[in-house]
Amino acid sequence: MTRRQFLATTAAAVSAGNRLRGRSPCVLLDLQRGCLRESVAGYTAVFQPRVVRAHMPGIPHCAVVLVPAALEISPVAARAIVRCLHAGATVILESAAGFLDQRAFGTERAVLRDYFGITVEPPVRLWPRQTPYVDYLWPYAAKLRDFSRVLPLGPPAGEPIAWVDNLPVALKRRSGRGTLIFLGSPVGPALWAGDAEATRWLSAVLATVS
Protein backbone atom coordinates (compact mmCIF):
# COMPACT_ATOMS: atom_id res chain seq x y z
CA MET A 1 0.00 0.00 0.00
CA THR A 2 1.33 3.44 -0.94
CA ARG A 3 1.49 6.38 1.45
CA ARG A 4 -1.31 8.07 -0.52
CA GLN A 5 -3.55 5.00 -0.17
CA PHE A 6 -2.77 4.72 3.56
CA LEU A 7 -3.70 8.36 4.18
CA ALA A 8 -6.91 8.00 2.18
CA THR A 9 -7.86 4.93 4.19
CA THR A 10 -7.19 6.66 7.50
CA ALA A 11 -9.21 9.69 6.42
CA ALA A 12 -12.14 7.46 5.50
CA ALA A 13 -12.07 5.77 8.90
CA VAL A 14 -11.93 9.09 10.76
CA SER A 15 -14.74 10.52 8.62
CA ALA A 16 -16.99 7.52 9.27
CA GLY A 17 -16.20 7.61 12.98
CA ASN A 18 -16.91 11.32 13.26
CA ARG A 19 -20.21 11.03 11.41
CA LEU A 20 -21.36 8.17 13.61
CA ARG A 21 -20.26 9.85 16.81
CA GLY A 22 -22.09 13.01 15.74
CA ARG A 23 -25.48 12.63 14.09
CA SER A 24 -25.54 8.82 14.32
CA PRO A 25 -23.89 7.49 17.51
CA CYS A 26 -21.89 4.27 17.39
CA VAL A 27 -21.92 1.97 20.42
CA LEU A 28 -19.68 -1.01 21.13
CA LEU A 29 -21.16 -3.75 23.29
CA ASP A 30 -18.27 -5.16 25.30
CA LEU A 31 -19.12 -8.73 26.32
CA GLN A 32 -15.98 -8.72 28.50
CA ARG A 33 -15.02 -12.35 29.18
CA GLY A 34 -17.50 -13.37 26.51
CA CYS A 35 -15.44 -12.02 23.60
CA LEU A 36 -11.91 -11.80 22.19
CA ARG A 37 -10.16 -8.78 23.67
CA GLU A 38 -8.04 -8.05 20.58
CA SER A 39 -11.23 -7.52 18.59
CA VAL A 40 -12.59 -5.07 21.15
CA ALA A 41 -9.23 -3.25 21.09
CA GLY A 42 -9.31 -3.08 17.28
CA TYR A 43 -12.76 -1.53 16.99
CA THR A 44 -12.11 0.83 19.88
CA ALA A 45 -8.82 2.10 18.48
CA VAL A 46 -10.07 2.69 14.94
CA PHE A 47 -13.64 3.95 15.44
CA GLN A 48 -13.61 5.24 19.03
CA PRO A 49 -17.21 4.19 19.77
CA ARG A 50 -19.04 4.65 23.02
CA VAL A 51 -18.35 1.47 25.02
CA VAL A 52 -21.21 -0.21 26.90
CA ARG A 53 -20.38 -3.26 29.02
CA ALA A 54 -22.65 -6.27 28.98
CA HIS A 55 -23.54 -6.01 32.68
CA MET A 56 -24.84 -2.45 32.24
CA PRO A 57 -28.62 -1.99 31.91
CA GLY A 58 -29.44 -1.90 28.20
CA ILE A 59 -27.86 -0.28 25.15
CA PRO A 60 -28.53 3.42 24.52
CA HIS A 61 -30.40 4.42 21.37
CA CYS A 62 -27.90 4.48 18.54
CA ALA A 63 -27.48 4.02 14.78
CA VAL A 64 -24.78 1.33 14.98
CA VAL A 65 -24.05 -1.40 17.51
CA LEU A 66 -20.70 -3.21 17.26
CA VAL A 67 -20.46 -6.64 18.91
CA PRO A 68 -16.81 -7.72 18.56
CA ALA A 69 -15.76 -11.39 18.34
CA ALA A 70 -18.48 -12.83 20.54
CA LEU A 71 -17.70 -16.08 22.35
CA GLU A 72 -20.72 -16.05 24.65
CA ILE A 73 -23.80 -13.89 24.18
CA SER A 74 -25.99 -14.08 27.26
CA PRO A 75 -29.78 -14.03 26.87
CA VAL A 76 -29.80 -10.56 28.46
CA ALA A 77 -27.27 -9.24 25.92
CA ALA A 78 -29.06 -11.00 23.05
CA ARG A 79 -32.38 -9.40 23.96
CA ALA A 80 -30.71 -5.98 24.19
CA ILE A 81 -29.23 -6.43 20.70
CA VAL A 82 -32.61 -7.52 19.31
CA ARG A 83 -34.24 -4.42 20.81
CA CYS A 84 -31.67 -2.26 19.00
CA LEU A 85 -32.48 -3.99 15.72
CA HIS A 86 -36.20 -3.49 16.22
CA ALA A 87 -35.53 0.19 16.94
CA GLY A 88 -33.76 0.58 13.59
CA ALA A 89 -30.07 0.17 14.43
CA THR A 90 -27.48 -1.52 12.25
CA VAL A 91 -25.79 -4.28 14.26
CA ILE A 92 -22.41 -5.69 13.25
CA LEU A 93 -22.22 -8.99 15.08
CA GLU A 94 -18.91 -10.84 14.92
CA SER A 95 -18.83 -14.40 16.15
CA ALA A 96 -15.74 -16.08 17.55
CA ALA A 97 -17.67 -19.23 18.44
CA GLY A 98 -15.30 -21.17 16.22
CA PHE A 99 -12.78 -21.01 19.07
CA LEU A 100 -15.06 -22.66 21.63
CA ASP A 101 -15.10 -26.27 22.72
CA GLN A 102 -17.90 -28.47 21.43
CA ARG A 103 -20.25 -27.96 24.37
CA ALA A 104 -19.85 -24.18 24.52
CA PHE A 105 -20.18 -23.98 20.75
CA GLY A 106 -23.51 -25.79 20.95
CA THR A 107 -24.78 -23.23 23.46
CA GLU A 108 -23.69 -20.24 21.39
CA ARG A 109 -25.07 -21.84 18.24
CA ALA A 110 -28.47 -22.05 19.92
CA VAL A 111 -28.31 -18.35 20.89
CA LEU A 112 -27.57 -17.33 17.30
CA ARG A 113 -30.46 -19.46 16.07
CA ASP A 114 -33.04 -18.57 18.70
CA TYR A 115 -32.43 -14.83 18.99
CA PHE A 116 -31.10 -13.87 15.56
CA GLY A 117 -32.41 -16.56 13.23
CA ILE A 118 -28.89 -17.45 12.08
CA THR A 119 -27.88 -21.07 11.57
CA VAL A 120 -24.16 -21.81 11.66
CA GLU A 121 -22.33 -25.01 10.90
CA PRO A 122 -19.42 -26.40 12.96
CA PRO A 123 -16.30 -24.24 12.66
CA VAL A 124 -13.73 -24.79 9.96
CA ARG A 125 -10.03 -24.46 10.75
CA LEU A 126 -8.35 -22.64 7.86
CA TRP A 127 -4.67 -22.67 8.71
CA PRO A 128 -2.43 -23.69 7.06
CA ARG A 129 -3.77 -22.83 3.62
CA GLN A 130 -2.40 -21.16 0.52
CA THR A 131 -4.87 -18.26 0.40
CA PRO A 132 -5.33 -16.74 3.87
CA TYR A 133 -8.18 -14.43 2.85
CA VAL A 134 -11.94 -14.12 3.15
CA ASP A 135 -13.58 -12.76 -0.01
CA TYR A 136 -16.11 -10.04 0.76
CA LEU A 137 -18.60 -8.98 -1.91
CA TRP A 138 -20.34 -6.11 -0.09
CA PRO A 139 -20.23 -3.14 0.20
CA TYR A 140 -17.44 -3.65 -2.35
CA ALA A 141 -15.21 -6.56 -3.33
CA ALA A 142 -12.37 -6.97 -0.85
CA LYS A 143 -10.01 -9.62 0.46
CA LEU A 144 -9.50 -9.55 4.22
CA ARG A 145 -7.12 -11.80 6.09
CA ASP A 146 -8.84 -14.64 7.90
CA PHE A 147 -8.47 -15.26 11.62
CA SER A 148 -7.65 -18.98 11.40
CA ARG A 149 -11.20 -20.28 12.01
CA VAL A 150 -14.55 -19.41 10.48
CA LEU A 151 -18.19 -20.28 11.03
CA PRO A 152 -19.88 -21.36 7.79
CA LEU A 153 -23.52 -20.34 7.48
CA GLY A 154 -26.28 -22.90 7.33
CA PRO A 155 -29.49 -22.47 5.28
CA PRO A 156 -29.77 -18.92 3.93
CA ALA A 157 -31.02 -16.44 6.52
CA GLY A 158 -30.02 -13.35 4.57
CA GLU A 159 -27.80 -12.16 1.76
CA PRO A 160 -24.34 -13.79 1.86
CA ILE A 161 -21.66 -11.10 1.69
CA ALA A 162 -18.44 -13.11 2.22
CA TRP A 163 -17.07 -16.48 1.22
CA VAL A 164 -14.05 -18.62 1.99
CA ASP A 165 -13.27 -21.85 0.14
CA ASN A 166 -16.81 -21.76 -1.37
CA LEU A 167 -18.40 -21.48 2.09
CA PRO A 168 -20.59 -18.47 2.98
CA VAL A 169 -19.29 -16.95 6.22
CA ALA A 170 -21.02 -13.56 6.51
CA LEU A 171 -24.44 -12.13 5.73
CA LYS A 172 -26.62 -9.08 5.97
CA ARG A 173 -30.39 -8.83 6.23
CA ARG A 174 -33.17 -6.66 7.48
CA SER A 175 -34.19 -7.43 11.06
CA GLY A 176 -37.06 -5.50 12.58
CA ARG A 177 -36.53 -1.93 11.43
CA GLY A 178 -32.77 -2.41 11.47
CA THR A 179 -30.05 -4.31 9.64
CA LEU A 180 -28.08 -7.26 10.97
CA ILE A 181 -24.58 -7.85 9.60
CA PHE A 182 -23.18 -11.16 10.81
CA LEU A 183 -19.47 -11.96 10.46
CA GLY A 184 -18.40 -15.57 10.96
CA SER A 185 -14.77 -14.52 10.61
CA PRO A 186 -13.73 -11.78 13.09
CA VAL A 187 -12.40 -8.57 11.52
CA GLY A 188 -11.60 -6.78 14.79
CA PRO A 189 -8.22 -8.49 15.29
CA ALA A 190 -7.15 -7.23 11.85
CA LEU A 191 -8.11 -3.70 12.90
CA TRP A 192 -6.03 -4.14 16.05
CA ALA A 193 -3.07 -5.23 13.92
CA GLY A 194 -3.35 -2.09 11.78
CA ASP A 195 -4.66 -3.82 8.65
CA ALA A 196 -5.52 -0.95 6.30
CA GLU A 197 -7.83 -3.00 4.08
CA ALA A 198 -9.88 -4.13 7.08
CA THR A 199 -10.16 -0.51 8.22
CA ARG A 200 -11.23 0.62 4.75
CA TRP A 201 -13.82 -2.15 4.45
CA LEU A 202 -15.39 -1.49 7.88
CA SER A 203 -15.43 2.25 7.14
CA ALA A 204 -17.35 1.52 3.94
CA VAL A 205 -19.83 -0.63 5.88
CA LEU A 206 -20.42 2.15 8.40
CA ALA A 207 -20.83 4.64 5.55
CA THR A 208 -23.90 2.68 4.37
CA VAL A 209 -25.74 3.58 7.59
CA SER A 210 -28.07 6.46 6.94
Structure notes:
With 210 residues, this protein is of the alpha/beta class. Helices cover 36% and strands 26% of the residues. It has a single domain (3-207), classed as Rossmann fold (3-Layer(aba) Sandwich), CATH 3.40.50. The chain contains 6 helices and 11 strands. The strands form 2 sheets. A 9-stranded mixed sheet has the order 2-1-3-4-11-10-9-6-7, sandwiched between helices. It has a two-stranded antiparallel ribbon with strand order 5-8. Helix 1 (3-22) packs parallel to helix 6 (196-207). The longest helix is centred in the N-terminal third of the chain and has 20 residues, at 3-22.
Q: What are the SSEs and their pairings?
A:
Elements: H1 3-22, E1 26-30, H2 37-47, E2 50-53, E3 64-70, H3 75-86, E4 90-95, H4 102-116, E5 124-125, E6 133-136, E7 142-145, E8 149-150, E9 159-164, E10 167-175, E11 178-183, H5 188-192, H6 196-207
Parallel strand pairs: 1-2, 1-3, 3-4, 4-11
Antiparallel strand pairs: 5-8, 6-7, 6-9, 9-10, 10-11
Helix pairs in contact: 1-6
